[in-house]
Amino acid sequence: MLQQLSLLDGPVEPIGGDAQGIRIRASRRARRLTLKVVPPYQIELVVPHGTPPRDVEAFVSESRDWIQRTRRELDRRYPTTMKRLPERIELVAIGATYDVVTRVRPSAEARLTTSPGQLLLTVADERDSAGFECLRQWLLAQGRAILRPWLLNEAAAMGVEPERVQIRTQRTRWGSCSERGVVSLNAASLLLAAPVARYLLIHELCHLVHLNHSARYWRLVGRYDPDYRDHDKNLSESWSQIPVWALPR
Ligand SMILES: [Zn+2]
Predict the structure, then answer these.
(1) Residue ranges per domain, the chain?
(2) For ligand 1, a single-atom ion, which residues have Cβ within 5 Å?
(3) Which residue has the higher pLDDT, 83 or 182?
(4) For the domain bounded by 88-246, which CATH number is listed?
């Protein structure tokens, strides 16, 4: 499995609002209150089930210095342009570029209409997440149309067959391969250079043969992608470049 930073262990449930820009997640597994950074922009507070609200408030208030310091650091690393609606989207992997034209119509329901080379986005408010969600859904559809056949093509060439292919917009990983042979790919991989996106497909398909990162596994990867080391490094580094609109809320 190709995993980025921490794996989340449950759905995100806002239980206390995000007055300080903190995402709050209730967890059955967690034993204590924890603050951490979840990729790529957010501070997350993990709250064990049944924690009294006053304990949560006290913890947040004690951690104020850490939160402010971390927020400044995140703002420095991720400029606001990455958090805004894009003016252009480039699906680098397939060499397709789309101009995004945003129309603000107060009280309009967010919607996206597409024409060759252009995405017309209608939103009530540019800061609202509805516009981001439209783009994410569009990316998912592109992923299903492009990544699925691409993966099956590579699989056929390698002589392997996934049980099922899922295209999603995971918040913590580029892809995964389950014990049952289900391959999941992040639709945001369309934003990567083609050889790097192809490496991701090869990486997951090789897990159908070896469900580990053993020497034998990497030899197999190397047979289909001799430059896999560079591509793997590039893939890890690209995580911080994923725009906010391509991530689930
Ligand atoms: Zn892996």
Answers:
(1) 22-78, 88-246
(2) 1-2
(3) 182
(4) 3.30.2010.10
